[in-house]
Amino acid sequence: MKNYWGIIMKKLFLLIVVTLCVCMSFVLFASASYPERNIT
């Protein structure tokens, strides 16, 4: 059971990291597209 939880936690961690990367790239792209709107 412990190994099963480890796999779930790894998948959740990867999902969170990917989501953060996508959000960051989207924010950077939006701020680059609209320089007059400072997103901080």
Describe it for me?
Keywords: Membrane, Transmembrane, Transmembrane helix. The protein is mainly alpha-helical. It has one helix and no strands.
Largest sheet: none
Helix and strand element order: H
Low-confidence segments, given as residue ranges, are none
Mean pLDDT: 86
Strand content: under 5%
Count of beta strands: 0
Radius of gyration: 16 Å
Distance between the termini: 43 Å
Annotation field: number of helices: 1
| Gross geometry | rod-shaped
Specify the helix fraction band. over 70%
The total tally of domains equals 1
Assign the structural class, choosing from mainly alpha, mainly beta, alpha/beta, alpha+beta, or little secondary structure: mainly alpha
Keywords: Membrane, Transmembrane, Transmembrane helix
Transmembrane segments: 12-34
Question: What descriptors fit this protein?
Answer:
transmembrane, 1 helix, mainly alpha, membrane
Give a quick rundown of the structure.
The chain contains 1 helix and no strands. With 40 residues, it is mostly helical.
How are the SSEs placed, and which strands pair?
Layout: H1 2-33
